[in-house]
Amino acid sequence: MRRKTVLVTGGAGFIGGHLVERLLQNYRVVVLDNLSTGKMTNLPDHPHLDFIFGDVSQEADILTIFENYQFSYVYHLAAVASVAASIEEPLVTHQTNMDGTIHILNAAKEQASTLQKFVFASSAAVYGSEPTLPKHETSAIAPITPYGIDKYAAESYVLAYSRLFGLKSSAARFFNVYGPRQNPQSPYSGVLSILTDCINRKIMGNEASFQLYGDGSQVRDFVYVEDIVAGLILLAESEESQAEVFNIASGERHSLLEVIAMYELIAGEKLSLTQREERAGDIHQSYADITKIEKIGYRTSHTLKMGLRKYHEYSSKAYV
Ligand SMILES: NC(=O)c1ccc[n+]([C@@H]2O[C@H](COP(=O)([O-])OP(=O)(O)OC[C@H]3O[C@@H](n4cnc5c(N)ncnc54)[C@H](O)[C@@H]3O)[C@@H](O)[C@H]2O)c1
């Protein structure tokens, strides 16, 4: 049977690479990525994968792709994914995170009659520091960074294109995602990738100190990357997710100090911590109510302990 074709923007990134790997089991996959943070090594060598080097903020790049392919699903993940980078360079971030989304939506709406779903990667950052917890999809929206503002504007555009042009869509607000291949090299990387890097450097006998911003009492909902992938595919395939926004998270909450202690136990290694000032734009507590996505069939398959074990197993092999 002929495979349906799926577009994954940002497919060479951390989450994108995992999504592509999974989609290749059933689909022909086209990845559009400018490799600004993504890497070709995040993608498998596969006969049903086409990689296109291009920029979502360049309309011409998008139009060419939509002229050449008829898509059954679009997963739009390409973004400047760092809150801190968005504070340093709001305009550059905006060109990718906002303008880029509109370019993709404009092209996708021309295929609205055959496109089965447009799925957008939004973020828990849209909730900002408004104190009500846990965060439900109907909680107050109060983004406090350029990243969060653009994510909220972009998800609103996605849902508006459903109402205005009949584009079938869903938006997913990811909480803190972690897992294999998350890049620890930038100071803006996810905290668990930096922790993993520190632990592995210590295991190899090197000096490594973990920079703790604030006192470690910040609470987060860490979700294993395979659960994010399962959630994204569910949103793409479900009829009930049409023109709706969903949290994707684990539903567990842990302080950073708890996570560090759990990871030290799993790895059998004690970390030295260097305390730093809390960073501008950091939200003290963020965790999700996931009942909305659970109602359409989502189940997390990794507790934090299971996810950390898998991540540690993978990354300690990658370091040898
Ligand atoms: N990792 C998380 O915890 C998290 C949480 C909430 C939301 N998200 C969202 O999930 C998506 C994927 O994040 P990630 O963690 O995999 O980050 P990532 O940086 O690994 O992936 C982003 C990908 O987009 C590509 N990209 C960036 N700008 C582009 C442009 N102008 N044109 C084409 N490609 C471009 C990058 O090269 C990279 O491959 C992003 O939209 C991010 O905002 C991530």
Structure, explained:
This protein is α/β, with parallel strands linked by helices. It folds into 2 domains: 5-176 and 223-248, NAD(P)-binding Rossmann-like Domain (Rossmann fold, 3-Layer(aba) Sandwich), CATH 3.40.50.720; 179-221 and 251-319, UDP-galactose 4-epimerase, domain 1 (Alpha-Beta Complex). The protein is built from 10 helices and 14 strands. The protein has a 7-stranded parallel beta sheet with strand order 3-2-1-4-5-6-11, sandwiched between helices. A 3-stranded mixed beta sheet has the order 12-9-14. The protein is globular and about 55 Å long. The mean pLDDT is 94. Residues 10, 12-16, 32-38, 55-57, 77-81, 96, 100, 121, 123, 174, 176-177, 190 line the site of nicotinamide-adenine-dinucleotide. Nicotinamide-adenine-dinucleotide (NAD) binds next to helix 1, strand 2, helix 4, strand 5 and strand 7.
Low-confidence stretches: none
**Largest beta-sheet details:** 7 strands, parallel
What is the overall silhouette? globular
Number of extended strands: 14
**Second-tier CATH architecture of the largest domain:** 3-Layer(aba) Sandwich
Mean pLDDT: 94
* The CATH C-level class name of the largest domain: Alpha Beta
Number of discrete helical segments: 10
End-to-end gap: 42 Å
Q: What's the helical proportion of residues?
A: 25-40%
Instruction: Tell me the name of the CATH homologous superfamily of the largest domain.
Output: NAD(P)-binding Rossmann-like Domain
Strand content: 15-25%
> Which ligands does the model contain, each kind named once?
nicotinamide-adenine-dinucleotide
**Structural class by sheet pairing and helices:** alpha/beta
Strand order in space, largest sheet? 3-2-1-4-5-6-11
Assembly form of the protein: single chain
CATH topology of the largest domain, by name, is: Rossmann fold
Q: What Rg is obtained from the alpha carbons, in whole angstroms? A: 19 Å
Domain NAD-dependent epimerase/dehydratase: 6-249
Protein name: NAD-dependent epimerase/dehydratase family protein
Family: Belongs to the NAD(P)-dependent epimerase/dehydratase family.
InterPro entries: Epimerase_deHydtase, NAD(P)-bd_dom_sf
